[in-house]
Amino acid sequence: MKWFLILWAGPIAFLGSWYGLSYYDMSFGFFMLTRETHDLVFQIYGQILGIAPEDLPPLVLRAIVVDSFFVLAILAFRRRKQITAWWQARRQSSPAVLARDDSLSSAP
């Protein structure tokens, strides 16, 4: 499961850092981080897909969000016993916190 999460988060982090650095043209001397490359990459992908280049970033973000929900659902399914035990412990401790005698409603 650890490798699954690493192989999921690695490309997302790489894409997000490339997008942020190239969008704001923080190239640090690397051609791949220039705004020109940023526009060229989205222009090429736009031509391949037949979509306007400015429509691609929201679509990529939406795909990342949907994929993230799937990954989190898989993670939650694999740890459902731990999550259920945590939820039960939390529900059992909640009434005790609310029924304390040192409530502020009895303050003078």
How much of the sequence lies in strands comes to under 5%
The DSSP helix count reads 4
Molecular shape: elongated
The secondary-structure element order is HHHH
Question: Stretches where pLDDT falls below 50 for ≥5 residues?
Answer: none
Give a short account of the largest sheet. none
Percentage of residues in helical conformation: over 70%
Indicate the radius of gyration in whole angstroms.
Answer: 24 Å
Give the tally of β-strands.
0
- Mean pLDDT score, rounded? 88
* Structural class by secondary-structure content: mainly alpha
Measured between the Cα atoms of the first and last residue, the distance is 55 Å
Name its key features.
mainly alpha, 108 residues
Summarize the structure.
The chain has helices spanning 2-23, 35-49, 56-78, 80-98. With 108 residues, the protein is mainly alpha-helical.
Account of the protein in words:
With 108 residues, the protein is mainly alpha-helical. The protein is 73% helix and 0% strand. The chain has four helices and no strands. The radius of gyration is 24 Å and the shape is elongated. The mean pLDDT is 88.
Furnish the topology, listing elements before pairings:
Blueprint: H1 2-23, H2 35-49, H3 56-78, H4 80-98
